[in-house]
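>> received
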Amino acid sequence: MSLNATTPSSLIAKLAETPAEIDAAQALRYRVFFEERDAKATPRQASLRRDIDPFDEVADHLIVVDSSIADASRRVVGTYRLLRHGAAARADGIYTAGEYDVTRLLNRGLRLLELGRSCVAKSHRTRHTINLLWHAIATYIDDHRIDLLFGCASFPGTDPLTLRLPLSYLYHYHLAPSRMRPRALEARFVEMNRLAKSEISTREALFAMPPLIKGYIRLGAHIGDGAVIDPDFGTVDVCIVLSREQIDARYGRHYRGARKAL
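>> returned
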């Protein structure tokens, strides 16, 4: 099943239903992460030209398909990987746990959804594509009665000093409450609090943020304590925590405006 935007378009958001659709999502991820952004591929990823890992086998793959593209293997132009807590148990964990201690989230008895591996083809990086993805995510969290979303989001580059303004802004203005605050693993912990709150220009900090992180913040997301350097992807990561109530309070009506089951 699919969720269509109200605006006529050749784009449609849906859950991948076939191995070919999952393969196309992995191919898109490879093009964006490894070819466009120069992440370091494993030998297997490089030989297959696919971004793959064990979590793919148990996750749901949200995709945006452009039916106007002649090459069927390139019709997937946007994707998100959706990993529910129950499915994560079958994969011996969650991706975020490789960077953060998420015990406080796991022990709250909530229905959790890990968001990850989000990307959009360069040719389709528009608000319409992003809105399609979030319409579909809103439907998904309704269908599965999700209480809390979380996952890693990235800044390009591996030097935290160059990111001291946006990292400090996130720390001072959006740090998660202690009861639900992930913390970067001690061996990988990078301090985010690098500037005093009085030194921070909110406007400049938001300007320095990648669109994805800025979008989460606008939805009301909180941030875990500590950043993490990912040398393979060439990024500095932060942990996003977003409750269903925050989405409903800010944009629930907007993102559920054209609801259909996924």
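>> The chain has one domain: 2-255.
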